[in-house]
Write a structure and sequence with these properties.
The protein has 161 residues and is of the alpha+beta class. It has 4 helices and 5 strands. Strand 3 and strand 4 form a beta hairpin. The longest helix has 15 residues. Bound molecules: FE2/S2 (inorganic) cluster (FES). FE2/S2 (inorganic) cluster binds next to loops.
């Protein structure tokens, strides 16, 4: 894998994960970022680039992260927590080896099956993989995108629909 195709995993380090940190306590997003940084320094640093951002505009669903690579789908993830660092790293590695960036829910760690908040197509791609005009349902769109599974919603989002 070339350097240019290395996925960038961006962690929101200001996410509070639904709580308010105590005085002097790091936000949950910063704790998750530190946990990933420690793991990547030991293993996999060449495969994934880790970055930090102050807010990914997904505050109510934090901790939040995004993963992106030129030529692949970009994904926004939510409802993360520091305890999921290993699972998030496993997902990022699967994303890195996927041609399109698609990692089906059944191929993710169980804790991340419903953590996808949204995705953004790669603008350089000019094929039906992300031609949403051809489908009316989300499920059909995902089938046309090479996904044979519907993206599950997080329970916190189910109550809103
Ligand atoms: S504070 Fe993390 S998404 Fe806004």
């Amino acid at each position: 894998m070339t350097e240019a195709l290395r996925p960038c995993l961006i962690l929101c380090t200001t996410c509070r994960s639904g709580g308010t940190p105590l005085q002097g306590e790091e936000p949950a997003g910063a704790v998750l970022h530190a946990a990933l940084q420690a793991r990547l320094s030991e293993d996999g640093a060449a495969l994934i680039e880790l970055r930090a951002a102050a807010c990914l505009a997904n505050c109510d669903r934090g901790c939040s992260a995004a993963i992106t690579t030129p030529g692949k789908w970009t994904y926004l993830l939510g409802f993360l927590e520091p305890a999921l660092a290993d699972d998030l790293l496993a997902y990022a590695k699967s994303y890195a080896t996927s041609e399109t960036g698609i990692v089906l829910p059944s191929r993710r760690p169980a804790s991340l099956r419903n953590m996808i908040i949204g995705r953004i197509p790669d603008l350089e791609r000019d094929d039906r993989r992300w031609d949403h005009r051809r489908s009316e349902s989300r499920e059909k769109t995902m089938t046309e995108s090479g996904m044979s599974e519907r993206e599950p919603s997080h329970p916190a989002l189910e109550s809103r629909s």
